[in-house]
Inverse folding.
């Protein structure tokens, strides 16, 4: 029986859950606002909200991991 491909949403949620502990170690967190394939809207919370390193965290950390794990991933949008 062929393996069923995991949905885009499930894969995005899995990546975010892998990243979340690192953000929480620094007093922050990330919230998924909307998943609309191939894009993701998120909100940084806690210590991450307004942090000078937030842009780096989002685009080097979160976006980088999403793109490595989900090649068809599009845009990461911070709200």
């Amino acid at each position: 029986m062929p393996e069923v491909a995991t949905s885009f949403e499930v894969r995005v949620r899995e990546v975010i859950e892998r990243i979340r502990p690192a953000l929480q170690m620094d007093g922050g967190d990330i919230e998924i606002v909307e998943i609309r394939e191939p894009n993701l809207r998120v909100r940084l919370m806690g210590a991450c909200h307004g942090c000078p390193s937030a842009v780096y965290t989002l685009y080097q950390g979160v976006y980088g991991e999403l793109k490595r794990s989900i090649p068809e991933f599009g845009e990461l949008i911070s709200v």
